[in-house]
């Protein structure tokens, strides 16, 4: 099912080489390394092992793929989903989450399509890269057919995976979400199907609970339709115990360490708002800033109250490129760094906190085809260490 290799294939980039971006007073690129040279890589998740190794997961061309990398440039293992008898009819597969478990093994979560049917895909990989277990499954409830995994994050001492399930027959158009909980040894120990009024965008653990961030639709005071952000708290049994709706599209502001309160960045029509909420989603603090165009895939907070968002920025009318944005504690000051060459890094989708406060590691696929000088700029997986203050 998997190929496993251990070798060195890294290209450390000097400041003037491909992928380097213009630095600012608040954003510094400390190091960039290119892996998987010549491959079309789409990283969707990144995790860090206890010894500092990085596990990056996503897809490599068509199949699901993951790799474990030493910070100095050595690839410890590389797993690619093969098209053998078990998955010979797979048309697509990808990992969207990687969770490091207490024994230094890794739980990889994603989706696979077999004979046009969607299955959840979960692979348990040892610290040396051996596949300890692999499961392709649908909900245990026969009332549901289609299944996938959209998110996978650490939860308690194990992990939780959340994905979409769809009903059978006339119920096929109705989508619900399934919560699957894994223990510290990657065993499935609980499963719940829940309904939420919108599209799940993110989630964070909060003690024994899970808090979902849900994109929905509503109306403003003038009756105009607007995007809304819903917060929904689920307890361990899968019961929804609390909810709140905010105007505007929103994003969780992730913290490096465990946080006692949850922060949400939203963008109503009046401008940016950063809400810090308590256990009942009551506002503890609200900071307002000017209107801005947010296109982040991940947002993190710094100890001084400033925030950092990774994702993409607009270049021209209908073009985008991968970027990082710093906003000060009042949300009024802003600095943006776009990764170069432009159009080669369409988004930055996999980010983690690393080392000291304000240090991040970002993974992005580099595809410079059709850009000036592309014959000198290879495709591959770019890992960037960034320092933001």
Notes on the protein architecture:
The protein has strands at residues 2-3, 7-8, 10-12, 27-35, 41-48, 54-60, 64-69, 74-81, 90-100, 106-114, 117-125, 131-137, 144-147, 151-155, 158-167, 175-182, 188-194, 199-206, 209-219, 225-234, 240-247, 249-252, 262-267, 272-277, 283-289, 296-301, 307-314, 320-327, 334-338, 350-353, 359-366, 380-388. Strands 1, 2, 5, 6, 7 and 8 form a 6-stranded antiparallel β-sheet that branches. A 5-stranded antiparallel β-sheet has the order 3-4-32-31-30, with no helix packed on it. Strands 13, 14, 15, 16 and 17 form a 5-stranded antiparallel β-sheet that branches. Helices cover 0% and strands 57% of the residues. The chain is mostly beta strands and 389 residues long. The termini are far apart. A hairpin with a 4-residue loop joins strand 23 and strand 24 (272-277). 41% of the residues are buried. It has 2 domains: 1-35 and 292-389, no CATH class; 39-195, no CATH class.
